[in-house]
Amino acid sequence: MTGRARGEGSAVKPPRRIRHIRIESGALTLDFQGCVEQIGCVADELAAIDGLTVTVDDNLAADLPTLPCAQLWT
After folding, report:
1. What is the pLDDT of residues 45-63, one digit of tens each?
2. Is 31 helix (H, G, I), strand (E, B) or coil?
3. Distance set, CA 17 to CA 13, 21, 33, 37, 46 (Å)
4. H and E: helices and strands count for the chain
C-alpha cells in the first residue's frame, strides 16, 4: 500500500521572527513591529540619516502597529 503522509511534499515555512523598531527624532518617537528582514532593512536605511536615532530590539507589545508598507522592505 502506498500513500502520502499528511503534508508530505509541501514546503513548511518556519515562523517569521518579529522585531521592534523605535525611530526617534527630537520629540517624535515612532514604534513599529515587523519581520526581522524588514526591520533590518529599514534600520539600515534610517541609521544613515543625521538626527535620527534607530533602535532595534525584541521588546514587543501586542499593541505595536505593523511597519507601514512593510512589503517594500523585503
Report:
1. 999 999 999 999 999 999 9
2. strand
3. 12, 13, 10, 9, 21
4. 1, 3
Question: Does this model's pTM top 0.85?
Answer: no
Whether residue 72 contacts residue 41, with contact meaning beta carbons closer than 8 Å, is answered with no
Strand order of the β-sheet with 53-57 is: 28-35, 18-25, 53-57
Locus of grid cell 515562523: 15
CB 35 within 8 A of CB 71: no
Mind giving me the DSSP string for 4-26?
Answer: --TTTTS--PPPPPEEEEEEEET
If you search the block for the grid coordinates 523598531, which residue do you land on? 21
